[in-house]
Amino acid sequence: MPYVLFANRSAIEERMARLSRYLDLRNHGFDAVLDWGLALRAEIGIPNSLFEMGIDGKQASQVVRMALADPSSGGNPIPLGAEDYREILRRAVAGELGWEAHQKSKARKPS
Description:
Layout: H1 2-7, H2 9-22, H3 30-43, H4 60-69, H5 82-94, H6 100-108
Helix pairs in contact: 2-3, 4-5
């Protein structure tokens, strides 16, 4: 979940601020909700990466095709393409949070 949150951060900042208040978190905003979610994940024993769960990136092309075909992807706050899904999967397998560097490199690529 945190990998998808980062991918959608620019579109959900205000919603995460509201959620942090609903949850009565000490701090408010995206980072507060993210920290709460990561702490909950650790508390209930969910691994930090897909790799730790036995999932590697070998099926990336299939996962990307499935994500693009998933009807629920149309409800994503930010339209995501194949490159975006591939990056989310890469980060989830590696346990690498963050998205800003990917977005910056994507913006620099010529169309």
